[in-house]
Amino acid sequence: MQSFIRHRRLRASENIRRMVREHHIRAEDLIYPIFVVEGQGIKAEVPSMPGVYHFSLDRLNEEVEEVVELGIRSVILFGVPAEKDECGSQADHEHGIVQKAIRQVKEKFPSLYVIADTCLCQYTSHGHCGVVENGEVLNDPSLERLVATAVSQARAGADMIAPSNMMDGFVHAIRRGLDEAGYAHVPILSYAVKYASAFYGPFRDAAHSTPQFGDRRTYQMDPANAREAMREAASDVAEGADMLMVKPGLAYLDVIHRVKERFDLPVVAYNVSGEYSMVKAAAQNGWIDEEKVVMEILVGFKRAGADLILTYHAKDVARWLKGGDH
């Protein structure tokens, strides 16, 4: 009589493994970040992010065309202005870099879903995500600037607003501002759980957004805290968020799982710049199989509960998906 269970029966061939596979990565699961800069003829690789580029508006369509051809259905646009000031005045300017990029992309690629990152750090001379007075990041005055930015992005044609600043009450303020401006139909993807992480270094290189003093620990979360993440997410749900993001993703799979289990909203994992750059560096040194490692990481996000994944790997993943089954 058999005295043990033979689990290997369902692993015996590639066909049966595919039949019983629990989680899959699809191109439509991916959101691809794009950095847009002022100037002409610019396609400049970010030094700390191999394969990621700054694009001027006259080169932007080249990148977006490739994204569309690969079957990726959504992008998030980050603007890097030529001029910065204390209040981040370019963030909500009608002719700001991200507003111009949104209008251009939606005109040329109307079916592509365009998300606008809504923050001030790329636009302020001090590099913080809000209004600063006497060395302190002020919460409520920052909300006014964030609402103005969100409304200007919606007016430019953004399909979704993604506020990433972690000010208290930011979802409530932006939801009310969008509704009052006639954009009640525009959803909010809240960076609901955003940690003060060491994984953001390459992004700050790309966005030119390194704080010029102090750090962001008074508004971004302590990496040691998980219960606090539930409080942050619950606030954003109550204030009208349509989707919830956990950032970073890789070191916070437990948080992604807890958010998904507790809240009945789509959950987005942000596979951040440091996670991306570590994989790229190891692959370039021949230490890992890049495709296998990336796909394993992304499946991990899905297994934890992520519905969507914001990742700089998106174009590579879409190419790999065209070549095989994952």
- H/I helix tally: 11
Name given to the CATH homologous superfamily: Aldolase class I
Fraction of helical residues = 25-40%
The overall number of domains is: 1
Strand content: 15-25%
User: If you compute it from the alpha carbons, what radius of gyration comes out, rounded to the nearest whole angstrom?
Assistant: 20 Å
- The assigned structural class equals alpha/beta
Known CATH architecture: Alpha-Beta Barrel
CATH topology tier name: TIM Barrel
Q: What separation lies between the terminal Cα atoms?
A: 37 Å
- Secondary-structure element order, as H and E? HEEEHEHEEEHEHEHHEHEHHEH
The count of strands amounts to 12
**Low-confidence runs:** none
The whole-number mean of residue pLDDT values reads 91
CATH structural class: Alpha Beta
The largest β sheet comes out as: 10 strands, mixed
Shape: globular
What is the topological layout?
Blueprint: H1 14-19, E1 30-37, E2 43-45, E3 53-56, H2 57-69, E4 74-80, H3 97-108, E5 113-118, E6 131-133, E7 136-138, H4 139-156, E8 160-163, H5 170-180, E9 189-194, H6 201-207, H7 227-239, E10 243-247, H8 253-262, E11 267-271, H9 273-284, H10 290-304, E12 308-311, H11 314-323
Parallel strand pairs: 1-3, 1-4, 1-12, 4-5, 5-8, 9-10, 10-11, 11-12
Antiparallel strand pairs: 2-3, 6-7
